[in-house]
Amino acid sequence: MSGPRLAADIPEQEFCTFSIAARCPHTGTLGIAVATAVPAVGSNCSHIGSKIGAIATQAWVNPYLGIDGLEALRTGAPAPEVLDRLIREDPRRDVRQLGIVDAHGRSAAYTGKNCQAWCGHLVADGYTIQGNMLAGEEVLTTMQTAFEAAPREELAERLLRALEAGDASGGDHRGRQSAALKAVADEEYPLVDLRVDEHNAPVTELRRVFEVAERQLRPFAATFPTRANPAGREDYAVSALLALAPARRPGGPSPPQARRS
To answer: Which fold would CATH assign to domain 17-201?
Structure first.
C-alpha cells in the first residue's frame, strides 16, 4: 500500500473517491464499485470491457485513462504495463488515481503524489482498492477484508459488500453523495449497471436498488439476446412479472429518494 500523504487543512471542495476494481477468478466477470462526495460518480469513473479489463479512474478524474487503458488492455498488454504507459503520458499524473485489473487477474494501481490525504491504494491478485481524501487507511483495509470474506459469492455482491465496509468505516471524511456498481461478464453489455447519482446515503440506497434489481431486472436480463443466441429467449414468468405494477413486484414498493438538505 502507498503511504499516507497528510495535509494540515483539507479544502471542503476537493474531490474524493473510494473504489474497488476486481475480476472473479471463477467466472471471469469484471467489475467496479465506487462511492464519492460528488454527484454521478458512475458516469465517468468506471470503465469495463468484457474479457478485457476494469479500470477505476478517480481523484481529479481523467476519463481517457479508462478509455485509452481499455484499448491498451485489448491488445493483450498486462495491467502493470498499461498503468505505466497511462501515467507516463498524463501531464497531470500527480493528481490522478486509478486501479486496473486485466482479464487474467493481473492488477496495478497508482496514487499521484498530490492527491489529497488520506490517500493510498492496495493491490492484490485479481483486485485493487484505492481512495483519496478518506477518513484513513482503515477504509481500504476494511474493504479488503469484506471482499475476501466471501470468495464464492458472485462478484457484484462481493464488490457491494466491500463498498459497504468502506462506507461504514468512514469513507470520505465529508460524507457521501453518489455510488455505483458495474459488472460485465461474457456479453458486451453489463451484467449489473446500477447508479445512485445524488443521495444523502448513496451506498445504502445502492444496496436497496441492487436488491430490487436482483428480483426484477435480473430475470428480465436473463432473456436478452447473446452472441451465442441472437434471438434471446422467452420466459412467461418474466412477462408476468413485468406486467405487474412496480409496487406489486418482488422488492416493491420503492420508497421516494431521500433528498439532500
So the answer is: Glutamine Phosphoribosylpyrophosphate, subunit 1, domain 1 (3.60.20)
Determine the pLDDT at residue 9: 41
The parts of the chain modelled with pLDDT lower than 50 are: 1-15, 258-261
Q: Which residues contact 226 (CB under 8 A, 6 or more apart)?
A: 186, 187, 232
Q: What is the DSSP letter of 253?
A: P
Backbone angles phi, psi at 95, to 5 degrees: -115, 15
Helix axes 155-168, 202-221, angle to 10 degrees: 170
Cell numbers 445524488 label which residue?
198
The grid coordinates of residue 86 equal 497511462
Q: Across the beta sheet with 107-111, what order do the strands follow?
A: 46-49, 53-59, 96-102, 107-111
- Cα–Cα distance between 130 and 236 in angstroms, integer? 43
Half-sphere exposure of 37 (CA within 13 A, CB side): 18
Residues 228-251: tens digit of each pLDDT: 999 999 988 888 898 889 888 887
